[in-house]
Amino acid sequence: MKSNLLNSLILAALVMPSIAMAADTSPISANVSMTTDYIFRGISQSSKGPAMQGGFDYAHASGLYVGTWGSSVGWIKDFQGYTSGSMEFDLYGGYRSGFEGTDFTYDLGAAQYMYPGSRLAATTNADTTEVYGALGWKWITAKYSRVVSSGAYGFANASGSDYMDLSASVPLGETGLTAGAHWGTFKFKNNTLQDYSDTKLSLSYDIGGGLSAGVAYTNTDAKVANWSDANAKDLGAGKGFAWITKAF
After folding, report:
1. CA torsion 184→168→245→60, rounded to 10°?
2. pLDDT for the residue numbered 121
């Protein structure tokens, strides 16, 4: 699965520049990334190893949008106990707009997180559906996400679990640098031992031509006993990581 994703991302990198040149105002955009660790809400999804990622988005002038995104992952087998599976595949859509005459924006939508692979009957399906709402002001965004599927990322009977986060992304003058800060807290319905909060500090640089790179440090208060994989890796431990992204 990892090789298939890598091939798809390479193909996208070759094809999308010609599309962008043909229609600079196209509502379609794409991105390809490499990261030293795939961190989602403070938890390593790639078993503390590198990941390849990429996605496509369509944003209509009305504010409606849809998109898809994929990444190589390691936790499906190492943490969840799948017999096979090394990819995350997401579908999402919603509506974003702003309040006229103000710096406030809002975003309402839904996301489906899918983890294809084989699993034993006793293993909970990791696929998860969430709905979300976000309110932004200039560089600050508050977002609330709620699980509406029966399970949440491999935890059974977890419908109603929720994640709240507050983030800031501040451009540093005309330097091309952007500083970021994030705090979030995850509450698992009927699985309270998994509850945790996470923080992240980041710095990214706009290289130009759709290319950007960044570094970040993330940490959580997740209990080691509840968030360690089959290889005894603490998936919620504090860690620095770096990434590079090409946007089309």
Report:
1. 100
2. 86
**Residue range of the domain that includes 197:** 2-247
Structure tokens, 121: 């009957």
Which two three-digit tokens encode residue 233?
Answer: 């890796």
Cβ 168 vs Cβ 157: under 8 Å: no
Residue 7 has pLDDT above 60, yes or no: no
Q: 132 near 144, Cβ under 8 Å?
A: yes
Quote the pLDDT of residue 24.
Answer: 54
CB 32 within 8 A of CB 12: yes
Number of separate domains in the chain? 1
- Whether the CA torsion 68, 73, 79, 84 is positive or negative: it is positive
Give the distance from CA 10 to its chain's centroid: 20
* Residue 203: per-residue pLDDT: 98
Residue 165 host element (H or E): strand 162-171
* Residues 128, 151: Cα–Cα separation, whole Å: 6
Single out the residue of 163, 162, 166, 199 nearest to residue 42, CA to CA: 199
Whichever domain contains 8, its CATH number is: 2.40.160.40
- Using CA atoms, how far apart are residues 60 and 48, in angstroms rounded to an integer? 36
Bridge pairing between strands 64-72 and 51-59: antiparallel
CA–CA distance, 168 with 35 (Å, rounded to integer): 21
| The predicted structure's pLDDT at residue 156 | 94
pTM score of the predicted model: 0.88
pLDDT bracket for residue 204 (50, 70, 90): very high
